[in-house]
Design goal:
This protein is of the alpha/beta class and 254 residues long. 43% of the residues lie in helices and 15% in strands. The protein contains ten helices and eight strands. Helix 8 packs parallel to helix 9. The protein is globular, with a radius of gyration of 17 Å.
Length: 254
């Protein structure tokens, strides 16, 4: 069976227990907040204790993303994005994590897409230049309308460490083409998937099968076009049981 991770929604203890029970990995999300250690100086030690039961290949981390734009025309904005992404990498080193989810960061209408992509290619090549060969960065879609810019960016950087994190909830409520079309376009460029559902209007993070996303069709497309991708349930603690049952009913989970 393919690797399945559970996103902890900044509540690592209960999700870690559930992940152990179901032989899943865990995605640590608390460090999306770059000020976390200012308020909770013991956060690294706390997470290290939780992760002791997870081998390295079953750990991932969601890095900072708020208001970060690595393809901005303003060098100062790109520098801020670099600073925050490096902070995420530091947390990966602290927690012995080799998969980091960051955001592509494009907001439609704010920049001419070819120019944004050109700047992004340079940004990510430079970011990866001093990183180890076993660090994998997965770039998540959020407000993007189509998969085209992310596909062009990943092809332009042309580094196996940089792949897409396809977020199915974001494609469904923010995208302007069906989620299956995103999968067909990105194909093996997808290295990681955030799975959750909604009704096509807002980012509800519903359990699988409780919105209008054609989940069975999406999972079949991922299996066909992105067979190496890691799947991660991003449905909150209350939605995990229903989502795990959905996967089990479709023979995608033991």
């Amino acid at each position: 069976m393919r690797p399945l991770f559970l996103c902890d929604d900044c509540s690592p203890e209960p999700i870690a227990q559930l992940a152990i029970e179901h032989a899943c990995g865990i995605e640590i999300q608390s460090f999306y907040d770059p000020t976390l250690l200012d308020r909770h100086p013991d956060a690294i030690e706390r997470h290290c204790r939780i992760l002791e039961k997870f081998p390295r290949e079953k750990r991932s981390l969601h890095g900072p993303y708020g208001d970060l734009c690595p393809g901005s025309f303003d060098p100062a904005v790109r520098e801020l994005a670099r600073n925050r992404f490096e902070l995420g990498y530091d947390r990966c080193c602290d927690l012995d994590i080799s998969r980091m989810i960051l955001h592509h960061g494009y907001v439609p209408g704010t920049s001419h897409p070819p120019n944004y992509t050109k700047r992004s290619v340079a940004f990510w090549r430079d970011f990866l230049a001093d990183k180890p060969a076993d660090l994998f960065v997965h770039l998540e879609n959020m407000h993007e309308h189509t998969p085209d810019m992310i596909a062009e960016l990943i092809a332009g950087v042309n580094d196996p460490r940089l792949t897409a994190c396809l977020d199915t909830g974001h494609t469904h409520c923010h995208g302007m083409v069906p989620t299956v079309e995103w999968i067909r376009t990105l194909g093996p460029m997808i290295g990681y998937v955030h799975l959750h559902d909604n009704h096509g209007e807002t980012d509800e993070h519903l359990p699988l099968g409780q919105g209008t996303l054609p989940v069975a069709e999406v999972l079949a497309a991922l299996t066909e076009h992105s067979p190496a991708a890691v799947w991660a349930l991003e449905v909150g603690a209350d939605g995990m049981s229903a989502s795990l049952a959905f996967l089990r009913s479709h023979s995608l989970l033991k």
